[in-house]
Amino acid sequence: MAKPKEIRVTLVKSKHGRLKSHKACVAGLGLRKIHQTVSVIDTPENRGMINRISYMVSVEEA
């Protein structure tokens, strides 16, 4: 079985002062601090969260 594809997501802008739903997306991806990077599995759910907060994060294919 093939290994699931992963994406690396880095928080580049502060989550303070943002909409509650955007803060929830940041937390859902496992991000806590600015410049923290996490690897998440490339699923439609994760892509949706990333698209919603695209102005706050940078994304790399891992």
Q: How is this structure best summarized?
A:
With 62 residues, the protein is an alpha+beta fold.
Layout: helices, strands, pairs:
Elements: E1 6-11, H1 20-28, E2 37-41, H2 44-52, E3 57-61
Antiparallel strand pairs: 1-2, 1-3
- Helix content range of the residues, please? 25-40%
Main sheet characteristics:
3 strands, antiparallel
CATH class: Alpha Beta
Order of helices and strands: EHEHE
Outline: globular
User: What would the CATH topology be?
Assistant: Ribosomal Protein L30, Chain: A
Strand order of the largest sheet: 2-1-3
Number of separate domains? 1
Global mean pLDDT:
96
N/C terminus separation: 18 Å
Total beta strands? 3
Content-based structural category: alpha+beta
The name of the CATH superfamily reads Ribosomal protein L30/L7
In the CATH hierarchy, the architecture is 2-Layer Sandwich
- List segments where confidence is low: pLDDT < 50 over at least 5 consecutive residues: none
Number of helices: 2
Radius of gyration: 11 Å
Description of the structure:
The protein has a 3-stranded antiparallel sheet, with no helix packed on it. The chain has one domain (6-61): Ribosomal Protein L30, Chain: A (2-Layer Sandwich), CATH 3.30.1390. The protein is of the alpha+beta class and 62 residues long. The model has no long low-confidence stretch (mean pLDDT 96). The protein has 2 helices and 3 strands, in the order βαβαβ.
